[in-house]
Amino acid sequence: MKLRKVTAAASVALALAVTATACGSDNKHDSGSSGGNKIKVGIKFDQPGLGLKEPSGSFSGFDVDVATYVAKQLGYKPDQIEFVETKSADRENALARGDVKFIAATYSITDERKQKVDFAGPYLLAHQDLLVKSNSDISKATDLNGKKLCSVTGSTSAQNIHDTIAPKANLREYSGYSECIAGLQSGAVDAVTTDDSILAGFAAQDKYKNQFKLAGLKLSNENYGIGVKKGDATTVKKINYALAKMVSDGSWQKAVDKNFGPANYKNEPAPKTGVIVK
Ligand code: GLU
User: Fold this and answer.
1) At 108, is the secondary structure helix, strand, or coil?
2) Cis ω before 269 (30° cut-off from 0)
3) What range defines the domain where residue 233 resides?
4) Same domain, 149 and 121
5) Which of 13, 73, 104, 191 could form a Cys-Cys staple with 242, CB 3.0–4.6 A?
6) Shortest-distance Cα residue to atom 9 of ligand 1
7) Does pLDDT of 16 surpass 70?
């Protein structure tokens, strides 16, 4: 894998030093989507281990924990956070409209998206993979030719399939991964493709135990960033500070163990702020 430094000034140490003074917990009156003493944060609602709305109405997952930590650094307690569902295809528009202050939703940093939104991070490196039934003989990308494959509209996963990974697959694009998983269980599709982090979370759910397997293919590098409105450099800077602190004080590892441990997902080490793995 090739490492590319986006900006030298974005390294963890410098992010901590430069922005330390700008990041106290007294800035509750952030404008826009934070709306006074509440902050609106975009997450996924249907991705176990990452962003999940529980039947009780509470939220769980790694993205939820990252978002909660970041919001705290911006001056908001957990009860001041309003989580809003931002599906893959809605994320750029939700930020442009000001529906949410930031998005932590398995949101890969890409050059295309950077035309429309700004990113802090990355805070996790995942890889595109395939999920199939336990008895499936699909084990590599070329096995997908002519097969029914499910992914989500507006995702890098769907784009990569069209562009390079399996242009000859019969790709169906749904609006969320939970719908793809239901399709895999019912036999409507032969495989689901997206980040291994997401697929591992579904595969580990009690209701799917022993039914599915991951192919274990690292088909892409997905550098998860926190999306903010284009031009909001102040928030990017504050969030980069928060993410670096989350790693250095051990909270990042704690969130990894809590959320990925049950799914037995072997994540990559914490990325460095500003360093994208191409
Ligand atoms: N990380 C990929 C993306 O940002 C796939 C997961 C998702 O759709 O959120 O598109």
Assistant:
1) strand
2) no
3) 3-126+223-277
4) no
5) 73
6) 106
7) no
